[in-house]
């Protein structure tokens, strides 16, 4: 790896560690959200801990299409609504999906994330392998209006 690439990666790792303190303890296949910034500039990020196979796919593919699907459903433990987000990564011949659920009992977390997602048009997705080594960081377009109906249910 070139010195320039090492320096760039070190800078990215610093930002990732700031956005996701304690990320080394995150579970395999987990998706963890993070919000950074102030009212003028908000950054909404997600950290995905990939298994070995997914990590290899992300390392070797250059073109990856990313999308997010959002839905809510009654909470399994009858407290409000569970907020579900599916991160979908389309490769040339297959898709990978990762899931985030914020349970109904965490209504304040749901509202906070929904409010912040309403203020951005890009999302940042950080990818690490199961040993928590940096794989890549992706930026994806985000259209809150496509998911507004679901978010309005948790914002009530």
From TrEMBL:
<protein>
    <submittedName>
        <fullName>Uncharacterized protein</fullName>
    </submittedName>
</protein>
């Amino acid at each position: 790896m070139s010195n320039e690439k090492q320096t760039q990666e070190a800078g990215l790792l610093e930002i990732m560690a700031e956005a996701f303190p304690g990320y080394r303890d995150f579970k395999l296949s987990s998706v963890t959200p993070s919000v950074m910034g102030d009212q003028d500039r908000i950054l909404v990020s997600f950290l995905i801990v990939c298994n070995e196979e997914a990590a290899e796919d992300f390392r070797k593919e250059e073109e990856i299409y990313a999308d997010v699907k959002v839905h809510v459903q009654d909470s399994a433990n009858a407290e409000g609504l569970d907020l579900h987000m599916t991160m979908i990564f389309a490769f040339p011949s297959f898709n990978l999906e990762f899931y985030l659920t914020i349970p109904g009992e965490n209504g304040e977390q749901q509202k906070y994330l929904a409010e912040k997602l309403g203020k951005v048009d890009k999302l940042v997705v950080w990818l690490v392998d199961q040993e928590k080594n940096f794989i890549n960081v992706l930026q994806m377009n985000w259209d809150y209006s496509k998911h507004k109906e679901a978010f309005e249910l948790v914002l009530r």
